[in-house]
Specification:
The protein is built from eight helices and twelve strands. By secondary structure, the protein is α/β, with parallel strands linked by helices. It has one domain (2-271): Ribonuclease Z/Hydroxyacylglutathione hydrolase-like (Metallo-beta-lactamase, Chain A). It is globular, with a radius of gyration of 18 Å. The protein binds zinc ion (ZN).
């Protein structure tokens, strides 16, 4: 379904995990971000692109390499791909592809395009790198912590910040890479919100927001969650879970990632000799 639409931007939302896919139509080119998830949802995005495109160039940006964000790549074979250098050089490609195959075979999913790991045409290597696509200007920022290969994208023309799997209103931080990198990335996000004042924030899962106070609140809530994880591990007093489930809901789905976060933070603190 379409979650949000305004001049220059359309945000699609999957029925699965409320994963977002964004189409930016500004500056003479079309940019698709993370097309996902089910075959008919991707077909819908493909049809939408074909309707609005005319002869314009197509770009495809991946916010990070999690399987749910990349599985639509080959539905847009003519698009030039933008992602981080860490994404391009990811040593876990085969594992990620295996997760897609696992998902598709578990649910007998049939897709009318091949599954493969995206080949990157435009690599984001430096924090703050600018990509000019036609008259559209993207500012790209490195955003490790969730995964090591994440990026934030600020679309200057329409003041949109695309956050990948950060700053969600329905998920606490999922930490696959490092809680310290995650913390720094949240501070960078907070700085970006202050300096760039995005008109619209698009997370990888859940609701977009146009409200500055909510953007800041999402940063704060994510930081607080990281602190609570460390506090719980170091003090041995347990995590204040009741509050967590009041805030985020979907307890049955989110319990496992929460436990994995606790285990990761415990390993981090042990490695630093703090636990
Ligand atoms: Zn992710």
């Amino acid at each position: 379904m379409i979650q949000y639409k305004a001049p220059g931007v359309t945000v699609f939302e999957s029925a699965l995990y409320r994963t977002t896919a964004t189409v930016i139509d500004t500056g003479g080119v079309i940019l698709i971000v993370d097309p996902n998830f089910l075959p008919q949802e991707i077909r819908r995005i493909r049809c939408f692109i074909d309707e609005i495109r005319k002869d314009r160039e197509l770009y495809l940006l991946f916010t990070h390499s999690d399987y749910d964000h990349i599985l639509g790549w080959q539905a847009f074979p003519e698009a030039k791909v933008i992602a981080s250098s860490a994404f391009a050089n990811n040593s876990g490609k085969e594992n990620i592809l295996e997760q897609i195959r696992q998902f598709d075979e578990e649910y007998y999913i049939r897709r009318n395009y091949p599954i493969d790991y995206p080949v990157v045409d435009i690599e984001v290597a430096a924090d703050g790198q600018v990509a000019e696509l036609g008259e559209a200007r993207l500012q790209l920022f490195l955003a490790p912590g969730h995964t090591a290969d994440g990026i934030f994208t600020f679309v200057e023309n329409i003041s949109v910040l695309i956050a990948g799997d950060y700053l969600s209103n329905i998920e606490f931080p999922f930490i696959y890479d490092s809680s310290y990198a995650y913390e720094q990335t949240l501070r960078n996000a907070s700085g970006l919100i202050d300096s760039h004042e995005p008109a619209l924030l698009i997370p990888g899962h859940g609701d977009v927001t146009l409200v500055k106070a909510e953007m800041r609140q999402r940063c704060e809530e994510s930081l607080e969650y990281l602190y609570n994880l460390r506090q719980a591990v170091q003090s041995g007093e347990g995590f204040p879970e009741e509050k967590l489930w009041q805030r985020y809901g979907n307890k049955r789905g989110l319990m496992a990632p929460h436990q994995e976060n606790l285990a990761l933070v415990r390993r981090e603190l042990e490695n630093r000799g703090f636990a």
